[in-house]
């Protein structure tokens, strides 16, 4: 899986660079933000990001890893029992005291979320995202945005390569929360 890891690390770096460029344009910073978006429920759509996440977890000390596993169980239980109106919100199981414990291995949406962005679909439809509530509340117009399109395309290519190598069905519709990815046993026989 060495080549897959290299490819996704390269992609993560490209996203990071573009995020920084767009962020600088808006003078954007998460520093001091009290509205931590790690409480947002995100879904993830690739095995390869689950693989990276678990690869990152293995690099943590055992007590941190166990804490994240226990947090993930509580997270799923709370989500299952959630029956209030409005979106489910709970701190991500990988977050401790406001910090991401798997920062280097966090999934793509965690890297993109925040700054204004757009996604162009093959049929020409364009979805536009204002960014997180902090940036969205400060500006009326967003002339410079992060374009998610090529990043998503690159991730799909890497995912395809990963599925072939890991012997996972190409058409399987992956959709998991971060807690489900952390607890998943789907890739336990796939090693870096
Ligand atoms: S992305 Fe926005 S909401 Fe999230 S921590 Fe940064 S400033 Fe706060
Ligand atoms: S993986 Fe890290 S950055 Fe993403 S939601 Fe969890 S704590 Fe936040």
TrEMBL record:
Name assigned to this protein: YkgJ family cysteine cluster protein
